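Hi R.,

As promised on Friday, here is the backbone we talked about, encoded as C-alpha cells. Could you run it through your design pipeline when you get a chance and send me back a sequence?
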C-alpha cells in the first residue's frame, strides 16, 4: 500500500491535471490514499478561498481515499481566523504555502502567525522546494523558530539543490522530505542512510512529475522492505493521521 502525500489538480498553461486521469494511473500502484492541492498559480495568491472549496468538492467514490492541502495567502488580514473557520481536519491534512508566488522567503515574519497557528493546532506545513527563495535550507530555517511545527520540504529539493537535502533535514527532527522530482538517487540514498527512513515521504507531484517515473525511482533506492514501507505508507499515515 502507498500514500501519495502531494499531487495537484487543475489547469496551468500546458498542464492539465484531471483527477480521473490521476486516479486511473495511481490505482495501478496500490495507492490507497492521496493528498491533493490546487495546481501552481493564482490559487496561492488571490483565488485561494475558491481553490480550497474546489479541493473539498473532490468526489470520494473511488478506490483511493482523497484528502486535501489547504492553501492560504499570508498577505490577507486575519488569515488565521480564515484557517480556523474553513479548515476541516477530516479532509484537509495540512497547509500548503508557496513563498515564490507570494513574494517572500518562507522564514519572513509575515508567515509567523500561520506557523504559530499550525504549530499550536498540530497542522503540518508543506512548502515545495526548488529555486530560491524555496531551497531546502531556506525552508528548514523555519524549524529554528518553530521547533514543534511539522514541516514538509516538497519536491525533494529539485535536482539543482540535492546538496542541501541532508543538511536541511539535520536542522531539526520536525522536518520531512517528500522525495519527488529529485533525480539524484545517490543524494537520496545518502540522506536516508544518514537520517533514517522515518523522515521521508512518497509523493508523485503529478502532473509536474510522472507517476510511473516516481514509482520506478523507489526501486532504484534499493531500500529494505521496512524502510520502503515507512517512506511509501507508514510515515504519512502517522504524520497525517490517515
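Update: got your reply. Pasting your designed sequence below so it's all in one thread:
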Amino acid at each position: 500500500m502507498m500514500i501519495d502525500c502531494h499531487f495537484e489538480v487543475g489547469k496551468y498553461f500546458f498542464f492539465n491535471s484531471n483527477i480521473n486521469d490521476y486516479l486511473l494511473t495511481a490505482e495501478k500502484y496500490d495507492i490507497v490514499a492521496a493528498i491533493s492541492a490546487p495546481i501552481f498559480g493564482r490559487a496561492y495568491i488571490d483565488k485561494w478561498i475558491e481553490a480550497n472549496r474546489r479541493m473539498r468538492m473532490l468526489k470520494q467514490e473511488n478506490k483511493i481515499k482523497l484528502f486535501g492541502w489547504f492553501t492560504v495567502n499570508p498577505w490577507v488580514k486575519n488569515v488565521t481566523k480564515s484557517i480556523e473557520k474553513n479548515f476541516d481536519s477530516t479532509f484537509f491534512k495540512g497547509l500548503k504555502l508557496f513563498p515564490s508566488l507570494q513574494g517572500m522567503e518562507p522564514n519572513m515574519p509575515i508567515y509567523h502567525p500561520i506557523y504559530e497557528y499550525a504549530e499550536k493546532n498540530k497542522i503540518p506545513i508543506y512548502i515545495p522546494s526548488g529555486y530560491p527563495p524555496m531551497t531546502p535550507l531556506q525552508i528548514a530555517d523555519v524549524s529554528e523558530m518553530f521547533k514543534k511545527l511539522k514541516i514538509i520540504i516538497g519536491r525533494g529539493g529539485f535536482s539543482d539543490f540535492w546538496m542541501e537535502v541532508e543538511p536541511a533535514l539535520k536542522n531539526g527532527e520536525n522536518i520531512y522530505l517528500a522525495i519527488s522530482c529529485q533525480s539524484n538517487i545517490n543524494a537520496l540514498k545518502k540522506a536516508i542512510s544518514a537520517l533514517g527512513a522515518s523522515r521521508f515521504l512518497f509523493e508523485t507531484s503529478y502532473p509536474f512529475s510522472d507517476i510511473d517515473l516516481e514509482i520506478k525511482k523507489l526501486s532504484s533506492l534499493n531500500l529494505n522492505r521496512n524502510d520502503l514501507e515507512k517512506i511509501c505508507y507508514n510515515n504519512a499515515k502517522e504524520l497525517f493521521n490517515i
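One thing I noticed while checking it: Residues 2-240 form a domain with the TIM Barrel fold (CATH 3.20.20.140).

Thanks again,
M.
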